[in-house]
Amino acid sequence: xxxxxxxxxxxxxxxxxxxxxxxxxxxxxxxxxxxxxxxxxxxxxxxxxxxxxxxxxxxxxxxxxxxxxxxxxxxxxxxxxxxxxxxxxxxxxxxxxxxxxxxxxxxxxxxxxxxxxxxxxxxxxxxxxxxxxxxxxxxxxxxxxxxxxxxxxxxxxxxxxxxxxxxxxxxxxxxxxxxxxxxxxxxxxxxxxxxxxxxxxxxxxxxxxxxxxxxxxxxxxxxxxxxxxxxxxxxxxxxxxxxxxxxxxxxxxxxxxxxxxxxxxxxxxxxxxxxxxxxxxxxxxxxxxxxxxxxxxxxxxxxxxxxxxxxxxxxxxxxxxxxxxxxxxxxxx
Length: 333
Prior knowledge:
Blueprint: H1 6-19, E1 26-31, E2 39-44, E3 49-57, H2 61-65, E4 73-78, E5 87-94, H3 100-116, H4 120-139, H5 147-164, E6 185-187, E7 190-198, E8 204-207, E9 221-235, H6 237-245, H7 250-263, E10 275-284, E11 306-309, H8 320-331
Parallel strand pairs: 7-9
Antiparallel strand pairs: 1-2, 2-3, 3-5, 4-5, 6-7, 8-11, 9-10
Helix pairs in contact: 3-4, 3-7, 5-6
C-alpha cells in the first residue's frame, strides 16, 4: 500500500465485505508493509463490523490495556492475527454495522499516523494519543453549527471544489474534516490551511494555533483565504455539500457524509444563509512569512491565537496554479 488514505482503505474494506459468507465471516488483510509494526484491517460478522488490528510489542501491553473505549468503538487486546512472538494486537472495532462509515474515519486517521511514525519508542504513544483524541471528540456535545463554523466549512469545501475542478477528485482524502489537525488539508509533501470570512474587505484572518502555519518536514504549505458575501443568489451550506457530493464516487461520498456528520452537520438543520465567493487569495507559507510557530515560542507556551494581517502576506501571494502543481507533485509521490 504505497500511500494510505481514507478512500483506498474504504475500498479495501468494501472488497473484504463482498467476500464475507455465513461460513467465513471474519476476514482481514495486511496493509502498509513499510510500517514499523504490522497493521491489519478486517471485517467480522453478518452484518459486518469493520475493525483494525495494530500489532504492538508485548512489553507495552499494559499501556494499551489502560485505554478507555471510544463511543461507538470497541477496544481490546488479543493475540496477533498471525502468530508473532513478543507481540500482541490492539483491536479497534465498530460497535455496530451502521457505524462503519464513522469508524472508517477514526481508523483511517489512526492508521495514517501510525504508518507515518518512524520511531519505535513513539509508536504506542501515538496509538494511545490518537485514540484519546477521538474519545474526547465524541464526548463533546455537538450543537448546531454557528455562523462562523458554517462560513469556515463552506471555505474548506470551496477549496475542495477548486481543486476538483482541475481534475483531482481525490482531494477530500486529505481533508482533516471533523478532527482538526494542524492543517485543514494534509498529505505527504502538501499542506493547506483554509480561511473564510464574510466581509466587505479582507484585512486579516484569525490563526487558531501556533501549529497552523508551521510547516512539517519542509512540505509546501499554503494559506488559502476566501472572502464570502451573503447573497440570495449564492449557495447555503446544504447547497455546497450537495455540489461537492455530486462530484464524488460512491465510496468517497460515504466517507464525505460521515465526516460531515462528525463535524455536526445535519441535513435537517435550516442553513438558510446563502453566500457567494467574491475573492480567493493564496499564499505560500515559507521563509519570513509573518507567523508565530512552535520553535519560536518560549518554553511552556502553547495554544497561541492571533490575527494575521493580509497586507503583510502580500509578498508571498502566488497564483492558484502553484497550489495545483504542488498538490499534483505530492499526489504522484
